[in-house]
Amino acid sequence: MLVFDGQGVFGLGVGLAGFDLDTGAETWTTELTGCSRMSVLRGGLVQLVHSDCAGYRDTDLLDRTGRAIAGTDHAGVQSLSIDRPADDTVPVLLADGARDRRTGELVWSTPDLVTAGGGKDGTAVAVVGDTALLRDHIVHTMTGLDMRTGQRKWQVLTERGGTAAGWDGHVVVFADSQGLWAIDPGTGATAWEIPFAAVDTKAESFSGEGQLTAPSKGHYFYASAHTLLALRPL
């Protein structure tokens, strides 16, 4: 069960149901078939990826009434770790394009949203403010995309992957097995970096997946299986 943007979504085995948070009344239902999956997006939207488990898939965007406002059979699916658009006028990403969050109409499209060379993977890892951060693991690039126009703000070469783990309204913090680093989404510049080895030389101190929270600008807590790390501005 998920609760977001004033509504609830409940998985029912082979289906999904939306429900009213005040009354618990069912507001919509839809089927899940094969290897289908869902994710939620700001504005009360549900991204429903239909798959037959053999590889073919298509994707629908459902509004808070369960109505499909947009759909595509493009293979590229965007899986955001952070979805924090500035407001509802910022479009929502679907395959290789951006759709109006209210009507589902296509606003713009760009090949940057799928991996290079005819790849079929979505590249978006985060939407913050009016910028999308894209990572293409084929050509090893990180790109900042203007969500209102679809134009590149910047692009850098990088071998580092990691997960977009936090956003404090100023920088996006990434995490991997080696440490934490922050990127300015407006310029692509690295604002700061903390290697875990500089905090504790014991490899097991930061083993396994960690969780990062940003309670306020410049303040972070990172918890791994064995260590709790608190960060603040210098």
From TrEMBL:
Superkingdom of origin: Bacteria
Chain ranges of the Pyrrolo-quinoline quinone repeat domain: 80-225
InterPro entries per the UniProt record, alphabetical: PQQ_rpt_dom (IPR002372), Quinoprotein_ADH-like_sf (IPR011047), WD40/YVTN_repeat-like_dom_sf (IPR015943)
A Pfam family annotated for this UniProt entry: PQQ_2
Record protein name field: PQQ-binding-like beta-propeller repeat protein
